[in-house]
Amino acid sequence: MKLASNRAPQAASRTSAITPRTPATAVRAQRLGDQLYERILNRIVAGELAEGERLPSEARLCEEFGVSRPVVREALSRLQADGMVVSRQGSGTYVQRRPSQDLTAIAPVGSIADLMRCFEFRIALEGEAAALAALRRTDEDMERIEGALAELDRVIEAGEVGSEADVRFHMAIAQATRNKIFETSLRAVAGQAIQGMHVARSMSLKRSIARMRKVQAEHNDIVAAIRAEDAEGARAAMRTHIDNARARVLTDSMEP
Which CATH architecture has domain 10-95? Predict the structure, then answer.
């Protein structure tokens, strides 16, 4: 099934191969690359491409989906960054990891590439926010953060997903930086952040209550470092937590 694209006739394609990419063509390649990323990911999840199996060649993917090589390379680059595939010099690209089928059942259609980008952004943004919160938090901030943590304890014991409670926890830490830009930046990606949290927490909840408690232990580590005014510890704990959330979305093998 071909992707929607504005691929030019063959003669024009030969010309474009030696023409520098403009910002518009780069954006178009990224958008189509995201679509192709999700098509290939869906095949991996469904088992149509098994772990260890070689993906079709770039030329074959171009032909099958009616896209250019830059689009294929964009998709493969994202899949490789997310650990789904691995490139072997002179041999091709192979499936490295198969996510749970829950991923495509829970995540909104067409959203997975953007969710992964949001996790990457949050690792950088919220790692620094946690470090600043540890240095600048007031007693009132600490009360707000610990209240959000207690609410997360409640939703876990109640067997709820708790995405909104999770957002409140992360927002309370951003507020404790005493820098409105951190709070504004987190609000700007709140829609995608909530989706990412919902997918990660839903998949953990389906797996086991033990995994949800492991997630909460990561939250506890963040709060403990902020309480102790340990900026480096808070940064590391937050970055580890969000990177683990990203990994929990993309693999079904994390324990428990």
Answer: Orthogonal Bundle (1.10)
| Confidence bin at 16 (pLDDT 50/70/90) | very low
Number of CB atoms found within 10 A of residue 222's CB = 27
Instruction: Please say whether the beta carbons of 56 and 14 come within 8 A.
Output: no
Strand 92-95 and strand 85-88: the pairing is: antiparallel
Confidence of residue 47 (pLDDT cuts 50, 70, 90): very high
Q: How far is CA 191 from the centre of its chain?
A: 13
Measured over the CA atoms of residue 227, residue 176, residue 132 and residue 194, the dihedral's sign is: positive
Task: Please report which confidence band the pLDDT of residue 126 belongs to, taking 50, 70 and 90 as the band edges.
Answer: very high
Dump pLDDT digits (tens) for 132-154: 999 999 999 999 999 999 999 99
Third-level CATH fold of 102-250? Four Helix Bundle (Hemerythrin (Met), subunit A) (1.20.120)
- Residue 151 exposed, middle or buried by CB count within 10 Å (0-12, 13-18, 19+): middle
Q: What is the DSSP string of 37-89?
A: HHHHHHHHHHTSS-TTPBPPPHHHHHHHHT--HHHHHHHHHHHHHTTSEEEET
Q: What are the sequence ranges of the domains in the chain?
A: 10-95, 102-250
Cα distance between the two ends of the chain: 38
* Residue 162 · residue 155 · CB < 8 Å: yes
Full-model pTM: 0.76
